[in-house]
Amino acid sequence: MTTSANSELLAKIKDEFAAHVRLLQDQITEALREVDPEIELNEDNWERLDTAGNPGGGGRTRAFQGSVIENAGVNTSLVFGATSEQFAKQIGATKAEMWATGISLIIHPTNPRVPTCHANFRMICGGDKVWFGGGADLTPFYPNTEDFTYFHNVWKEACAPYGFYADWKKQCDEYFVNKHRNNEMRGVGGIFYDHFFSGDMEKDLAMFKEISNQFIRSYFPIVKKRVNEEYTEEDVDFQLHRRGRYVEFNLLHDRGTHFGLKSNGRTDSILISLPGRCKFTYCYDPKEGSPHAEMLKYYYPQEW
Q1: Tens of pLDDT along 156-212?
Q2: Residue 46 to residue 190: CA distance in whole angstroms
Q3: Pairing between strand 55-65 and 177-178?
Q4: Mean pLDDT to the nearest integer, 44-70
Q5: What values do phi and psi take at 75, rounded to 5?
Q6: Active-site residue, 118 included
Q7: Among 73, 78, 42, which Cα is nearest to 57's?
Q8: Which strands, in side-by-side order, build the sheet including 69-82?
Q9: Residue 252: what pLDDT?
Q10: Which of 45, 71, 85, 87 is placed for a possible disulfide with 276 were both Cys, Cβ 3.0 to 4.6 Å?
Q11: pLDDT (tens digit, 9 = 90+) per residue, 91-135?
């Protein structure tokens, strides 16, 4: 394929993936409204400058607050332009320039019997390199293990035609880890992949569109199943402490957070992943023999 044909194909792939993530954002917005009809949406369309001070794209942030969903963020962005040499080296780009589009979302339900969920799906071009990254992971606060199995099975089925589930599950188990907390995971995992490129952009595009389309099916049936369950003050206390661990991971370890901040992204849109409420208690441990103490063992890799 000629250089010109390669460029045309890449432009087509970029446009198609950018359109896909915006459509997915709309579909997830509707799914949130279905489970929380009174949810409030604050939509913010923003623009950024690249590191040279030139126009560098922007994004569409959607922040939600409701009764079923305490807070959530479903963001899309398309950014491009000059970056620092240090940042280009850090992300594996061949030049100090990049193009990236994707969707990133986090949902923090009010009821502690309903898990928190995060997902992101992105495409990045760094100089001459092109790759995809993303995944989805579940952070529950109550040991309803059938929900964990269901979530993993959806992603197992989604990955089955491509043969990547075992590898991406392992990467997820190893990525979403608070190393400073005895290598405890922030949740029960899911799938995670980064710097993926098979050499066939069209094939990769089709695969990641199909995989990302499974997010709604992986999570919202769990929300509907658990949303009306009664819960206790102890359930809330554990939820808030685990949200604290979530905050620790996002601020200390998450590459997506660091990428956004170092690429001159919009700070509020990046930190929208944080829960509206969380709790820190010195040397916190849940009550021995409680469901919350049982939950701790699931924050380490399991076979679902």
Answers
A1: 999 999 999 999 999 999 999 999 999 999 999 999 999 999 999 999 999 999 999
A2: 31
A3: unpaired
A4: 95
A5: -115, 140
A6: yes
A7: 78
A8: 40-49, 55-65, 69-82, 97-109, 116-126, 129-139, 189-196
A9: 95
A10: 71
A11: 777 787 889 999 999 999 999 999 999 999 999 998 788 999 999
Token pair of 243 as six digits: 């949200």
In the prediction, which pLDDT does 162 show?
A: 97
Strand partners, 170: none
Task: Look at the chain and count its residues.
Answer: 304
β-pairing verdict for 116-126 and 177-178: unpaired
Q: What are phi and psi of 186, to 5 degrees?
A: -80, -15
Q: Among residues of the chain, what percentage have pLDDT more than 90?
A: 85
Pairing between strand 129-139 and 69-82?
A: unpaired
Rounded to whole angstroms, how far apart are CA atoms 284 and 109? 22
CA distance 249 to 181: 10
Are the beta carbons of 76 and 44 closer than 8 angstroms? Answer: no
Rounded to whole angstroms, the Cα distance separating 117 from 62 reads: 16
Compute the distance between CA of residue 304 and CA of residue 293 in angstroms, rounded to an integer. Answer: 20
Q: List the domains of the chain with CATH numbers.
A: 3-299 (3.40.1500.10)
Catalytic one of 118, 152, 241, 292: 118
What residues have CB less than 8 Å from 53, skipping those under 6 apart? none
Task: Give yes or no for residue 3 having a pLDDT over 60.
Answer: no
User: Could you count the other beta carbons within 10 Å of the beta carbon of residue 31?
Assistant: 19
* Average pLDDT score over residue span 231-260: 94
